[in-house]
Amino acid sequence: MIQELLRNGSHFSAHATYLAEVHGQKKIVKAAADPDGIENLKREFRGLEWYTRRRNPTQGNPCRIVAEKREYLRTEIDYVEGRIPDCRSGLVRSAADLRSLISHYCEIWPKGNRVPLHGDFSLGNAVFNEKSIYIIDWEHFAEDAVPGGFDVVYLLLETLCLGMRMRSKPSPEEIKILADLLAEANTRGHLAPEVVRSPLGFLVGYMKANPGFWGKQMPKFPVFKLSGNELAYIDTLLNARLSREKK
Asked: What is the pTM of this model?
C-alpha cells in the first residue's frame, strides 16, 4: 500500500520514489520507466549490495528488484528509521555530523587509489540513529572508480557550498573545519595523494572529466557553483592550514 509520494520525476528521468507498506513493513519503493532511470536503479541495487556486505557480511541485500520489463523497473528497499541532517546547515553547524559520517566512511571503504564511488555522498543521504549511520541513495554507484577519499571531499565541498549561500568566500572557521576533517581522513589513510594535493580542484576536475557517473544530473550538484579561481583560493588556504598542522 502506497503511503506517500516522496519524489517524482527526480534525477532528470521518469523516476518516482514512494514510501509504502509491504506485508506490514515500511519500504522505499522506486520505479523507473526510461533507460537512465532504470540504469540508476540497477546501480543502486549493486551499491546497496556492496555497502551491506561491507557493514555485515551475513546480511542480505536490503534492496530487491520486484518488477522488471524491457522499459520498466521497480525496486523495494528496507526502510531505515532515523534522522537525516539538513545538508544546508553549513560546515559550522554540521561539524559533528560530518565528523561522524567521515568516520563511518573510513570504517566501510577500503584504502587505495581506486575505491567504490557513492557519487552523492551527502548529509542528506545519510540516516543517523542510535545504533549507527546508514548511507542511502546509491544511484551513482560504481566499483573501483575513484581515488580514495573522493566521496569525503565531495561531502565537505557540498556542505560548504550550500552553507555559503550568497557569500563568495569561506570564513576562517569554515577553512579550519575543512582542514581538520580532511586531516582526519588522511591520517586514517583514506585520501589518495592526488586528492591531498588539491582536494577541491581535483574533485571538480575529476567530475567534469568523468561525466558518465552522473549523466544528466551533473548540473544539479552544488559543487559546480564555485569558479575555478574560487576553488584554487580555497585549496590554497587548505594547503596552508594543513602544512601548519604537520609542523
From this structure: 0.92
